[in-house]
Write a structure and sequence with these properties.
It holds the Pfam family ADH_N. The chain is of the alpha/beta class and 337 residues long. Helices cover 29% and strands 25% of the residues. The protein has helices at 44-52, 119-123, 126-139, 161-172, 184-192, 205-211, 229-235, 255-260, 271-274, 282-295, 312-323, and strands spanning 2-6, 19-22, 32-42, 61-62, 67-74, 86-89, 102-106, 110-112, 152-156, 176-180, 197-199, 217-222, 236-244, 263-266, 303-307, 330-334. Strands 3, 5, 6, 7, 8, 15 and 16 form a seven-stranded mixed beta sheet that branches. Strands 11-10-9-12-13-14 form a six-stranded parallel beta sheet, with helices on both faces. Strands 2-1-4 form a three-stranded antiparallel beta sheet, covered by helices on one side. Helix 3 crosses helix 4 and helix 3 crosses helix 10. The longest helix has 14 residues, at 126-139. It is globular and about 60 Å long.
């Protein structure tokens, strides 16, 4: 089968940074399903792995942790899907990725694709949806169904993929959303997704938040990087919670968190699959829930850019776009030829 991968890790500005491959088609066993991939999206994790993970001799690394497609075969223990079902999923960082014609994925982390979306529109969603959903509802303990209605949440880095679906999830839960954006086009983007207020994370966020009449914020999500840690600590309400998706070597002063009895949570959407946690099927449930919300017209895709077909040239361009750090929404590559 066709695939895109690399044999030498490093920068994207090389012709061999990502190359077209021919590899064997895998066989579904256990809880796995074999998916015929229709579209994939590119996330910062793809670029980070490509830059840092060495390929083993005679074993190219195949990236990709977002896909939509059609079930081609099911393993003997699989019960959630049948051949022909349309699905979307983010996969497992410890396994071969979705940048291939066919991919094996554990059905417990796969959702039923929204019927109202194209494959490209659906592929834009899984990784970021799981990340934002788990960050808000599993880590911060916000009630998905509205028990925290009226509380405030600050989403730092709201114009990216995670923030884009995060705004919609937070609004659906009844929260007042303060989104950050640093460019006019991303400000328009986050407003179109439902943000109640927009502030600039390249300027004084404390002053901007206080100008909105808010002394403190109930919940804070850091969806870009931890340079904003001190600002988040200053703004979080006593006994509030901060969630982040960024690992960091920067100092993280904790005195302000202690005196506020505030909590810090880490979100890593691959944790359930990586560690085969007993509740890993929750990713199947949450993806299927969001698909229902989309089909009901209460949420929408975060797709912004589509490249076609799926090949090394277009995948290198998608990686380049992500590495600019200015992409809004999601970049998707669709259709093998």
């Amino acid at each position: 089968m066709k695939a895109i991968g690399y044999t030498t890790h490093g920068a994207i500005d090389r012709d061999d940074a990502l190359i077209d491959l021919e590899i064997d088609t895998p066989t579904a066993i256990g809880h796995d399903i074999l998916v015929k991939v229709a579209a994939v999206s590119v996330n910062p994790v793809d670029t980070k792995v490509r830059q840092n993970r060495e390929a083993m001799p005679n074993a190219p690394v195949v990236l990709g942790w977002d896909a939509s497609g059609i079930v081609e075969a099911v393993g003997p223990d699989a019960t959630l899907f049948q051949v022909g079902d349309e699905v979307y999923y983010a996969g497992d960082i410890t396994r071969a990725g979705s940048n291939s014609e066919f991919q094996l994925v554990d059905e417990r982390i796969v959702g039923t694709k929204p019927t109202s979306l194209s494959f490209a529109e659906a592929a834009a969603l899984p990784l970021t949806t799981i990340t934002a959903y788990e960050a808000f509802f599993d880590r911060l303990g916000i009630d998905r169904d509205g028990a925290n209605k009226g509380e405030s949440i600050l989403i730092i880095g709201a114009g990216g993929g995670v923030g884009s679906i995060g705004i919609q999830l937070a609004k659906a839960a009844g929260l007042e959303v303060i989104a950050t954006a640093s460019r006019p086009e991303t400000e328009v983007w986050v407003k179109s997704l439902g943000a109640d207020h927009v502030i600039n994370h390249r300027e004084d966020m404390v002053a901007q938040t206080r100008a909105l009449g808010m002394q403190h914020i109930d919940h804070i999500a850091i969806f870009n990087d931890m340079r904003h840690w001190e600002t988040a600590v200053e703004l979080i309400r006593p006994q509030g919670g901060i969630v982040t998706i960024d690992d960091t070597n920067l100092p993280m002063e904790m005195a302000g968190m202690k005196t506020k009895a505030a909590s810090l949570h880490w979100e890593f959407m691959f944790a359930r699959a990586m560690h085969q946690t007993p509740d890993m099927i929750e990713q199947h449930h949450l993806l299927t829930y969001v698909a229902g919300e989309i089909d009901a017209g209460r949420m929408r895709t975060t797709l912004d850019t589509v490249l076609s077909p799926i090949n090394a040239k277009n995948m290198r361009e998608a990686h380049r776009l992500i590495e600019t750090g200015t992409a809004k929404g999601k970049v998707v590559v669709e259709r093998f030829e």
